[in-house]
Amino acid sequence: MSTAALTLRVLLAVVLGWSSVSKLTPSGRRGLSDMLTQLGIGRQAGWVGGLLIVGEATSAVLLLLPWTVVVGAGLATVLMAVLTAGTVLILRRRLKVTCACFGSSSTTIAPIHAVRNGLLLLGAAVAASLGPDVPADLVTAAVAVAVGAVLAIVMTRLDDFAFLLSPR
């Protein structure tokens, strides 16, 4: 279980870190603001967006520190629950919102985004339950870190993979 725990922590830390940094770019801020406005948050979009960015960055750091793993995974679970609910709400309202989760994108939020967020929510909950366990040997730990990083790249570039695999 220690391998799974480390893999999930790396996956979540990279995804949340990438997400928070990408929202600090001009196009990321604009995309986040547009999305929050369409969800009816409007006037509070600035502080809600700021809270989201700080929460993502904080969770990413806490997930990597052994003594704060459970708190980081708990925060990641809450964040992913909120983001999953927001994605489902966008889909149910049939809003045409551009996904600004990992920087600028021209992709409209689709069911695949809800699935991605749901999987990350599940991963965060499992990481919280597994705690700060790490593999005993260096090779296993290195493999867990590498697998977590590759999975994070897949999650953050999901729009690109979906485009490549879609019939045209």
From TrEMBL:
The chain crosses the membrane at residues 45-65, 71-91, 112-132, 138-158. Keywords: Membrane, Transmembrane, Transmembrane helix. Residues 1-128 form the Methylamine utilisation protein MauE domain. It is found in: Membrane. Its main location: membrane. It is a multi-pass membrane protein. It comes from the Bacteria. This is Methylamine utilisation protein MauE domain-containing protein. It comes from Fodinicola feengrottensis.
